[in-house]
TrEMBL record:
Protein's organism: Streptomyces termitum
Name recorded for this polypeptide: Integral membrane bound transporter domain-containing protein
One Pfam family, short name: FUSC_2
Organism superkingdom: Bacteria
Coiled-coil segments: none
Family: Belongs to the YccS/YhfK family.
Amino acid sequence: MSWLRALKETARSGLAVERRRLSPLIAARGALGLALVVGFSLALFGPAVAAASAFGAFQAAIATFQRSWRPRPTLALASGGSLAVSTFLGYLTGSHTVLFLALLLLWTFLSGLAWAVGPTVGIIASSNVAIMLVTITLPTSVAAAAGHAAMIFTGGLVQAALVVLLPVRPWGAQRDALADALAAEADYARRLRHDPVAPFDPVPLMNARSAAAVTVRQARRRPAELHGPRRLAERIRPVLASLADPAVGAPAEGPRRDRVRELLAAAAEVLDAAARAVRHGEPVRLPPGAVAALRTPDTGTILSGRSHRAALRLAALLDDVVEAADPRTGTSPDDPVPDDARSVGARALRLFRRAKLPGGGPAARTRPSLPRLVPVAVAKMRAELRPGSPVLRHAVRVSAVTAAGYLLGLVLPFGHGYWAPMASVMVMRPDFSQTYARSVARFGGTLVGVALASAVVQTAHPDTYLSAGLAVLCAFGMYLLMRTGYAVSQVCVAAYVVFLLGMEGSGITQTVRDRVLLTLLGGLLAMLAYAVYPAWETPRLRGRLADWLAASGRYATAVAARYADPSGAAGPDVREALLSARAARVAWHDAVGRAVHEPVRHRGLSHAAAEGAGHALAEFGRAAMLLEAHPPERDAVPLPAAAGLAEALREATERGARAVRERRVPEWDGLRETVAAWDTEVADPLLRKAARLLLDALDELSTTLTDA
């Protein structure tokens, strides 16, 4: 992609406005916290302290909107506390340019490395640097600096308290993640009716798994319906695939295929009903037609063999999903079960919970508390201190640009010179497309926001309290619309800052001119820095593809090894291998999404080749999943030939991954010989067909890379 086209695409992306579900009550709660903090500090301490405390409350509320599974009060406190520390250190060095510049370089570099921990931490750290640049201009002494820092933390404390005192849809993020996973399974079932080999995006399942990890305090209060359906959804996916696939189940056309389509449609309706129940905390309302389709005895007369067993297993798993997702039955193992949800599978699930879980409480994947997370975060940041790390390059870029913007702001004949580095640090991200899109969006949003705020000020001439009220109103608009697009949120942020600084009587004309010009300068510096010192994703695509191939190979190896050792005592863990393969797949697709907008040559893996390679590895994973859908019983007779297949898969995919990294076309001769012998040694048609599908997918990968 050329630079001109890349700039056009990123600009269009940055200015896009999306239709998203709004959360007016949560936005109103954040604005209420801001109003309480501003009003209190304005009445007791004056406009300067009010402005400082407002930034703390404003940023703490933004932190609660981030995509994180941690408790919202914890996010607000962490944001307020870290911002208070940042601003106090900035206050201590603000009057000494050299010392402050050194602190700015260090703090910005650390904020850049913080992206290694996750986007939530990265956003909070970047915002701390940006707000520090504004607030250090307010106090005049160390005592005043301490007071301002205390008020900033108070703002975060107030927002955390409001989250506790005024809960809005508790566990809403976790409910949405689990409901999205169930809805994704329902959509998958519908697509399988028309395309028996349709792909499945594992991201909703991965998000649900992340959301299921809770702290010890959360585990004691989590609704029971939030922990059962996720694992069941994981088990349903391979059953759906095996039921639909004509290679191992019903033929592509005929009465048996019609029955499979009917079962898939019924499964989709049941999963959608469970998703709605989880999302809203309501009882599950099952469509009568779907229940009748799943329970009709005609299935046994139409389907046979593995397709019949898959249909029975699907019905049992769906019963379990209904049991686990219904708040009437998921609260306690001893609660009565409604007739429409009662089944052998559901009762078995309740007995399992009662036997395995102490006191009948839900088992939980534990999430470390914030103090225990600190060494983990430090380790992740240290791991990025290596040549070629995109996060390290981002940290170097953002610290250099912020320092340069700060110095230019001092030299240029404008007031409010901190706006240039503030704009830079807020728009810069580790990848190209987000940095450029946010730069364009920030300038456009700033221009509109400042123009609107200027018109209001020049027309109404608001006093201190009216300016504070208008600032709170703009903050409410930002909280309400922040998920619809960065440009829209920046309109509200620009107006918010103008009104907030207007409480002190700052010259509005100078503020408008300086903010627009310096925001443009900060955005241009950010864009120029990425062009000079980039971290392109395109050259790393082969490495990402090799990682996915190796992880998929380990997954297929673990599944095949289970047939050689049905007890699983000495074999690799299938679940862990599957999770690693999913993570590698998501990393690959994220990398391709970033690379598609980069203005660089592909260097050996074109976009068409990347698409074909991704399809081939997705088929490889689907073939392994078909084997996983029909695992042997733990007391089954071991299949010695499966050990040879597992070893051949491991060696072939490891060699293939090395070949992909070295820009060679992988070969599968050893695996081909093993599969040929497998056909003669194994009588089970499913095992023979799955092995051939695995080899065919790898051959497709080699063909794609040959034509790259």
